[in-house]
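MODEL INPUT / OUTPUT PAIR
PAIR INDEX: 1
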Amino acid sequence: MSRQEAVSQYNQALRLGRKRYKDYVVHGRYPYPQVLDEILDEAMTAGQADLGLVEIPAERIIGTKTKGRRAAFSAGFLPLMDNGTEFAAKWIDLCEAHLSDEGIRDPIQCFEYLGRFYVQEGNKRVSVLRSYEAPSILGNVTRIIPAWSGDPGIQAYYDFMHAYEQTKLYQVCFSQTGRFAKLQAALGFEPDYVWTEEDRRKFLSNFTGFRKAFEKLGGGDLAVTAADALLVWLRVYGCEAFETMLPKELSRSLEKVWPDVKVQSQPDPISVSTETEDPSAPGFIGRILSSIFPNHLNIAFINDLRPEESDWVRDHDLGRQYLEAVMGGQVDVQVFSGVASGETAEAAMEKAVENGAEVIFATTPTLIAACRKTAAQHPDVKILNCSVSMPYTGVRTYYSRIYEGKFITGAIAGAMSRDGRIGYIASSPIFGVPAGINAFALGAQLTNPRARIQLHWSCAEEDPMGALLRDGVEIISNRDVPTPDRVREPWGLCRVNAGGVLQPLASPYWHWGNFYVKLVQSMFNGDWEALGSSGEGRAVNYWWGMRSRVVDVMMSQDLPAGVRQLVEIIRRGVRDGSILPFHRPIRAQDGTERSDGSRWFTPEEILRMDWLCDLVDGAIPGFAELLPMARSIVRLQGVYRDNIPPEKESRILL
């Protein structure tokens, strides 16, 4: 009986193989298995490694080592030779053995290159097992190590080789470097933990279902792997859900975060909105479809601390009050303050939605995880988080171009400095801060060609102000004013007077009320939908500045009249775009020319600056140099966040 079944199996595989061959030819694709010897030369390799016996994922066996048997198979190792040939007889013999108690026991011999396998011995065994859709095939594997290069694919493969030493799994591969370490942390493992056989078995049991859901949603057409998608999913649902979710529930949950998975495959996943449109006039979509957009909104504000505990939160709360004062008849507002960044924040957002919230503003970056989970559960709710450069389509982020205000205060510092030595106390090395330092330095150079900026960091030093005072610096840029009505001394740009007394001169400040009014008005006008469609599925980041009146500069009454007049000229120029802080010759500290004076920096280049110009004395502190209290925000928003070793999650999954 097994012989008859084997013959039937060959005939079925032959039909499928010939159909696949024709389909590939019609669509201009190579119809045979790939040949390693034809795509590889010695200059591309850095050696070989014997991996021994490996359970090879069957779909990763894509070719042969030599071209000898190439024409006998279609792509995917389905047979092409007529029934009655010697090839067909041997194939059927192997199939009969597979169906018997004996089974196919001998491992194949193959080479692995860049995660794909090429058979040297055992092509027909692969063909028989692939025809039965075997998930894996046992083989003796020799790895061909590619020569190191700057190619992202090669770098990702080297990262995979390191991961393989710990997992012994070919299923766990990523499209970018550094992601395996994040998976280790998400699963509760130490960075150097080596997986046991039980770890592998349990992980694959869960991952197999996840990968099927990934492929069903079209993951095979994306430039990301199933492991990439799992990392996105785990950041929303956690490893406990990965272990316990039923297949249908897991598939539905992946569908909810699918836009975030898709955006990972884009080279530029974030669309930056640098200015608002005129909120008094509806946008193009709004003019056409004005009747379908809301004229009233229920809005919730979620604050991690209470306004009396945090100047940052108080600033946003004043913005909320301004929104209600300006648009009171068009909005109902809920406020949840003092929530943590974990389950309490999620509960607050769920409560807000239960109370009818159509828009949620979460005012600190630490609330991003709760925002993402709420967005997955309630895709119709507009959710925004006050942060920058977050590649999540379900949550829009917002921040301000405070560097424009820093440029102006830098110009004041240069004009007021007698010896050109100017101190600058930076907060943390997060997105936008190096741009603020550089803009300040360029502003100082504008009014004082001798200007040098002495940089210190409050995130890495206990007393940066004291260090500058002891060094005899007379003009110092300190912490910015939190809100115009709440001046704290020493604030903003200061002059050091006799006896070390600090005299405030000027400071940039945020006007979150203007942002909230303009943003909500854009929802009424249809600009929210317009921006979302123009972003082509990318995450949206609002990064507004002085033109939108979200950033401004407050000046002391003691500032000389001539300097005040200069500030007004620069302020108007920044607002109307005739003065651009970075449109001038710029060299970095290492001597690299960043601009010859004609180059236009993109918003993304400014936002993600991780270098300092040559006017600055000081450096960006590394993660290990930061004080403990500063590390959490740098993990979320740091200019080098992708290179920070991830923290292990508290719960071990496997």
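PAIR INDEX: 2
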Amino acid sequence: MVRKFDYLVIGSGVAGMSFALQVADKDHRVALICKTTIDEANTAKAQGGVAAVTDLEKDSFEKHIQDTMIAGDYISDIEAVKQVVYNAPAGIKRLVSWGVNFDKKTDGTYDLHREGGHSEFRILHHADDSGYEIQRGLIEAVKHNRYITLFENHFAVEIITQHHLGIEVTRRTPDIECYGAYILDPDTGKVDTFLSHITLLATGGIGAIYASTTNPNIATGDGIAMAYRAKATVKDMEFVQFHPTALFNPKEKHPAYLITEAMRGYGGILRLPNGEEFMQKYDKRLSLAPRDIVARAIDKEMKIHGIDHVCLDVTHKDPEETKKHFPNIYEKCLTIGIDITKEYIPVCPCAHYLCGGIKVDLNGESSIHRLYAVGECSCTGLHGGNRLASNSLIEAVVYADAAARHSQSVVDSYDFNTKVPEWNDEGTMTNEEKILIAQDMKEVEQTMSNYVGIVRSNLRLHRAWTRLDLLYEETEELFKRVKATRDICELRNVINVGYLVTRQAIERKESRGLHYTIDYPKHAYDFK
């Protein structure tokens, strides 16, 4: 089946929905592709909130810019940083206009939090489920927009370029164009052809390539893998952020439950299980140091003491205030027998956020014409070597706006490419092959966690490279002879993404930001 839309949006988090809401009108129809249901996205998992300068008496854009540059180890793109910081207040207003609520004080001003790396209180939030609230508000707006057609439980297999017309495309081809995407319909088992004037990838992160992650299982890097196979530029993949404080619960690894950084901003103290503080050994900012430093410090302490977690302590804070600020965390910890007002919270680092991705310009456009990328799958340059807490959601909103404005100025100049062939869906898959796919997925997770984690080395990275190369060859051979299914496509994608993280980590001959290697140590203290 061939479908035609002015805009094809692949991904339904804050990035995809923000873009769709801005471009959809009576003359421009939008297809919104959701891998599962519209309410399952990384956006909904974000607890902390959204960073924006809203109190100009106490805060300033210059401070937010400087905090971002410091966290990014001074390799952030300054123009991208300025674009996000200066446009953040307008982004907040758009979210509010779509029905999103943020907590306010009794005087009507925003109740601002402070998180690690921020010099001022500038985090807008909704209790400790800010992402869920944003997702809720945007879902309501999307469902009431008659110009957006929602395709839930549909899976993007490949984006369509000249390659599918029989034209050779390489990374040196200067005029690659995107004509839409091949989308798997689970009800029919067929791969349909979606033609579009403009395609936007908003497919989220890559956490599922690791054995333990705060991301949902759907975070398999699909957009990045598709864009890379289509010869788009992919950048900064070595910068994978490990959140320092996921709830330590061996029964819950995919996704692990996140203990928001706002809890450390609130006054939480990192301790060993015996109550001893340790952050003073690593950074003068103590528990409020940037995430990469905190994650490596925790990893180091766990190795020194042979333990599988450390603790976060808020028992010295007012119990009622703690329950008011963090009601969901309080209830979640009670389910595993921990009252956070009286007991330490067991925490450990796990894969959380990707700072790299599909390289885009200030308009959100990739190196492939007519293909835009927004949100975690994109690399705008904002985050540099390490993301500053709560900058990601506002980046998605600001760049969705930039991409919407730019694409609206050119969308009517494009035509549908009707020469695109339909997908060849020959082949079958046996139960034995399905078992192999599941086993290979676990092997990717273990390889990435063991060799391309918080602390790296040349030996570990090359070992990962060798394992992934073998898996790649086996999987591509299998993909050629079976019908396209979600599980084989996801396996291809996690292997592609794991390869990119590993290769770009090998290429960076220094410790910088989130990429820390013992072969090029950066600090006097040693995180081996």
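PAIR 2 NOTE: The mean pLDDT is 92.
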